Input
Amino acid sequence: MPTYRTITDDLLITLKQHFDDREITFAQCLWWVLLAGNRLKMLHIAKRESGAFMTTFVVDTQTDPDLNNRMYVTLPWQIFDMDLDAGVDYMAYFIPGEDSHLTRIQFWRTNPAQARSQSGNSDRAPSPRNPHFYREGYRLYLLGVDADVTKIEVGLFLTLPDITDVDIDEEMPFPHELMLILQRNVLDIGRWMLAMPATKLNNTGSERNQPMLTSDPGKSVSINDPVLNPDTPTA
Amino acid sequence: MPQITVQEVIDRVAALLDAEGSEHYTFEQDYKPNINGVQDELMAVISQLLGARKFTEEGLRELNKVAVFQTNTYGEIDIDECLTQVGGTGQLPGPAHKLWTIVGVYPEFESFGSTDIITIGIPPPRSLMRGGVRFIRPLKDAKRYTQEQHAIIRRNVFLQGNQTLVNELKSYGYFIGSEKRWTALPSVGRTITIFPHTTNERTLVAVAYLKVPEQIDAITDNLEWPDSMRDLIIQMVFRRMAFKQGDGTNAYGLGSAEMGMLTRALS
Output
């Protein structure tokens, strides 16, 4: 897979922004790559049953004294906010002294309201053999797990890193087949930016009598355009 | 290094004036003030062209210098002062340079020579030229901003020179500030401020600049302009000499036309 630097450099050259007084900085173009990349990657994960972009972590359990020592784990990275918390592909653990494989017991996803109603049902109530989790921000609360469990295995669909965290010489975890659509997304943003007549504005920004765009921003795009809908087959 | 000699300019202007062997025009009264005047005029024209990005500094290679400087603890280089302090330990040999304009600022660069920061005997507000460090090539450049823009870009990660991004995404900016008025130290002239800057840290920065060409004083001097400017300079001196004819004769008109053609070719 190409690195963030390769992808961004290619786009900057395509936008003719590789000279010293360029209008689009590397950081800004990289930000666009991350924005468009996150959207396309999430659509790809939602559409395709694949482990290509799933990442496994073993995380320590913690307890929150303000919530009656409720057990939780903290997400080690930002995940896609998909329907039914599908950004968490799986959670599992083993019972100390009984099993030896972390994936032995799988967690079921729930939410606080469901968990409350299930707690009154002896067959469905969370238990060490039938644990549940629900998400609150960066926390995954664990229900039914004994206090001596210290580690949980989680499989997550991670977002691309934030611009302040990204290592631009690392490979970008992104599907190859969507790279062309990613490029098109970023090039469209770049075209809009370059069409903005910044040089026609005064220092105060008061000279707004000029049309906002000096060149053709492009025609309206069909909702079936691959830019908007990756399901559309490309020629 | 090939240079334009004053003698050559005088010979060719005399030929254009049909004044070979004549004592009508003298060096002290005619050629010297006109050659120096042409240098000033060229600087004014080329400054405009540089500002409009219609002329490259490579076209002024004899005046294009690069040196390594050590910032003060505020991330500044007192460029005017540094260029006049030469000949001392760690400084460049003379003569001193007068700054025309800054061509490039490189906070990250490859170099040869000790890059250890010198602190002994250097007060925190003082910057200095590091003549013992030879610049090889730039690794990261700094973008030029105005003094007002500095405050705007400081926290904006998308602008070059912000103080948020680090490592490979770290980028730099600079502005040429006005003279810092301060009672604790005497006036030091213009200052380059490079950012982002870590508080109380001194760093090495390579600066490429154009120096003001030396004014000529003797007929044996050389002009510091590149060979490509030779004919333009001769035509400009000729045009100025033709003023003396006073009435728009052929010599003045021809000289003006020639110089105009060359100036348009540059721009």
Q: What stands out?
A: The helical segments of chain A are 4-14, 26-47, 112-119, 179-195. The first strand of chain A starts at residue 54 and ends at 60.
